[in-house]
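The data are quoted verbatim for reference:
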Amino acid sequence: MEPQVTDNTEQSRFEITTDAGLAGFAEYQLRDGGRIAFVHTVIDPAFEGQGLGGKLARSVLDTARERGLAVLPYCPFIRGWIAKHPEYVDLVPADKRAKFDL
């Protein structure tokens, strides 16, 4: 099975799963003004080195774009991923980019 990312709204986190189960998640907070703040990302050590963190980051950012949400990347992993993939910088409000070093 290809890794799947789903939005677990009850726990306010996107989860990535594989055949072996839950591999990781990205916690978020929905904010006023159509913003989503990513606050913490975890990949289980048993799944590290498989590119799942990148797949999770791409999926959550693509979902934010589809939903018309601005992104506040408080999580260092999501922030670093955006920095390495400048095609996603536009999701961060222009007046907040300097705060996140983007």
Summary: The mean pLDDT is 97. Residues 4-96 form a domain with the Aminopeptidase fold (CATH 3.40.630.30). Strands lie at 4-8, 13-18, 21-31, 35-43, 70-73. The longest strand covers residues 21-31.
